[in-house]
Amino acid sequence: MKRMLEQKDYWDSEVERLDAIYSHKKSRLAVLLDKSFRWAMYRRFEFTLKQSEPIHTRTFLDVGCGTGRYSLELARRGAVSVVGLDVSERMIEVSRKLAQKEGLEGKARFILTDIMEYEPDDAFDICIGMGVLDYIKNPLPALTRIRGLTREKAFLSFPVLWSWRTLPRKLRLGLKRCPVYFYTRRRIYGLLTDAGFKRIIIKKMGPMYFVIVS
After folding, report:
1. Is the separation of the CB atoms in 73 and 48 below 8 Å?
2. What is the spatial distance between Cα 65 and Cα 91, in angstroms, rounded to a whole number?
3. Residues in contact with 17: Cβ distance below 8 Å, sequence separation at least 6, in sequence order
4. Cβ neighbourhood burial of 197 (10 Å; 0-12, 13-18, 19+)
5. What is the mean pLDDT of the chain?
6. Radius of gyration of the chain (CA)
7. Does the structure show a pLDDT above 80 at 156?
8. 89 versus 18: which is more confidently predicted?
9. Would the N or C end of the chain have less CB density within 10 A of its end CB?
10. CA–CA separation, 207 vs 162, rounded Å?
11. How confident is the model at residue 35 (pLDDT cuts 50, 70, 90)?
12. How many helices (H) and strands (E) would you count in the chain?
């Protein structure tokens, strides 16, 4: 997780751009391009919510929560409680402001920390790690930690090693000193098995793998 902390400046600088993908606060052309080229991000969002049902009976941990779009939607849909973690101070600041604006502070809490440093009082029914494992060079410790904090199941995403987005994304983020890592289905299965997960479902969604584990 040290590398994630070193990337803090990058994440702080990307708050508005990343949040606009979900808020659609951009030009109509940009929104159309997002729907065309980032459809997998929207699909994994809806799929996560669907697989989280019944939401109102469960607690959630959102690892690498960004601006809290997953956490806040779960809170809106009646989650018992949601905790969002992120290493970016600005991401957490935006998440807290959005929660306060909607009166969701009692349901959704946001903490500036990483998964290896976080010490909750109890485990969570569901853990979510969307778009966070992309940036961890050695994800096994984080996956093992997630396994230890999961009572029922976890939803995770990994970028596909060979897709049309691999090279452009690697080059673009490399220029911003933000390393990104890609995966094969075989490597994902091996990592999750080593982390202690027994039931593993890997579903390909365009340039990413959506994973359900328990």
Report:
1. no
2. 8
3. none
4. buried
5. 90
6. 16
7. yes
8. 89
9. C
10. 8
11. low
12. 10, 7
**Residue that the structure tokens 């065309």 belong to:** 36
Q: Where are the alpha helices (DSSP H) in 82-132?
A: 89-101
Q: Are 195 and 141 in contact (CB under 8 A)?
A: no
| The two structure tokens encoding residue 86 | 């992120």
- Structural domains of the chain sorted by starting position, each given as residue range(s) with its CATH number in brackets: 2-12+39-213 (3.40.50.150)
Q: Within 10 A of 8 (CB to CB), how many other CB atoms are there?
A: 16
Which pTM was predicted?
0.90
Instruction: Kindly give the interhelix angle for 39-51 and 28-37, rounded to the nearest 10 degrees.
Output: 70
Residue type, 205: M
User: What are the residues facing 101 on neighbouring strands?
Assistant: none
Please tell me the distance from the alpha carbon of residue 210 to that of residue 204, in angstroms, as a whole number: 6
Percent of the chain with pLDDT over 70: 91
Question: What is the arrangement of strands in the sheet containing 200-205, beginning at the earlier edge strand?
Answer: 108-112, 81-86, 59-63, 124-129, 150-159, 208-213, 200-205
Residue with tokens 């109509």: 28
Q: What share of the chain is helix, strand, coil (3-state, %, to 5)?
A: 45, 20, 30
